[in-house]
Amino acid sequence: MRILDEHKGKGLQKILLLLTSSEASELRDTLNLLLSNSDKKRYHLHVNDSEFIHEITVSLYYENDVADFDDRVQDLITNDK
Question: Higher pLDDT residue, 25 or 38?
Answer without folding.
Answer: 25
